[in-house]
Backbone:
């Protein structure tokens, strides 16, 4: 598979090799040959074991936990490909770490999402392919092309097959209402929002459900689940408001700290996540968690970028 940018090559960092294999299998090409190791003091050691001069290189590396380690690996890999005369280098970052630090919301704090964008450009990245950024305007932090995909087609296809009557899509906070509305429109479902407020003494959060959820199947929709505190409280509030069933669908299953324990204890019947981040530890044994693959979607985008055809049909 060759275009003006040479042969298509897919390489993987250590963050998610199984996703890289899925993408390579979809594209019908072998994964790139390289050695990624660490020196005794934890420094990254990387060497490409094939000729990539004039090649169109895609490096697949979500910057998930441990975020700094995976980010540094990605930067070192990009530098190696640039110095080895790759025609074009695309960083495929299914989960973009530091995306939640996208503005100065307090005095004297960094805008880390912009810093990461600068680092990727400085290392030699020609293009970025990512998925469900925490805020879409992060694309504006880059001075190179950014293809921003959404996992909605994969998740909506799964939800549609559940064939649940009286379906309501619920945003766990006011900020995610627009995203939840898009899901509700595609599924011909009702929309509800959980409004989180402090009690009068400021010691507790009161979850007010705005919308009709009584006797309905409710699906909490969000882009990231980290410690699962918000999702757990929102699910409890929905049950208290009379919801028949509560499911949750999230693109990026960060699931750090007490997240899995909270999911297990919560009234959530099923937590649907994608494989932008690999499940680790106790999350792999949690029977409530269902993982959907975005490999085909990313593979289609990689093929379109390589063949210089439109990617916009995937932006749904």
Residues:
């Amino acid at each position: 598979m060759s275009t003006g940018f040479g042969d298509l090559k897919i390489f993987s960092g250590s963050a998610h090799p199984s996703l890289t294999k899925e993408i390579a299998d979809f594209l019908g090409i072998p994964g790139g040959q390289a050695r990624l190791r660490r020196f005794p003091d934890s420094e990254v050691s990387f060497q490409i074991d094939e000729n990539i001069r004039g090649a169109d290189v895609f490096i697949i590396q979500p910057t998930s936990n441990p975020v700094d380690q995976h980010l540094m690996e990605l930067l070192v890999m990009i530098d190696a490909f640039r110095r080895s005369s790759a025609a074009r280098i695309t960083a495929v970052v299914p989960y973009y770490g530091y995306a939640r630090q996208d503005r100065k919301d307090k005095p004297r704090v960094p805008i880390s999402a912009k810093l990461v964008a600068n680092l990727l450009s400085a290392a030699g990245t020609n293009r970025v392919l990512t998925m469900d950024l925490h805020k879409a305007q992060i694309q504006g932090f880059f001075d190179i092309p950014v293809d921003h995909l959404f996992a909605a087609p994969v998740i909506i296809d799964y939800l549609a097959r559940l064939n649940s009557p009286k379906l309501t899509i619920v945003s766990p906070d006011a900020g995610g209402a627009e995203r939840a509305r898009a899901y509700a429109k595609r599924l011909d479902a009702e929309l509800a929002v959980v409004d989180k407020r402090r009690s009068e003494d400021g010691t507790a959060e009161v979850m007010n459900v705005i919308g009709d959820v009584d006797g309905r199947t409710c699906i909490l929709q969000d882009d990231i689940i980290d410690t699962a505190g918000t999702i757990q409280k929102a699910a409890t509030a929905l049950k208290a408001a009379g919801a028949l069933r509560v499911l949750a669908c999230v693109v990026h299953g960060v699931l750090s700290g007490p997240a899995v324990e909270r999911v297990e204890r919560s009234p959530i019947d099923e937590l649907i996540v994608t494989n932008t981040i690999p499940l680790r530890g106790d999350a792999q044994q949690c029977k409530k968690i269902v993982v959907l693959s975005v490999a085909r979607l990313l593979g289609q985008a990689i093929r379109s970028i390589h063949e210089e055809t439109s990617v916009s049909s995937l932006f749904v």
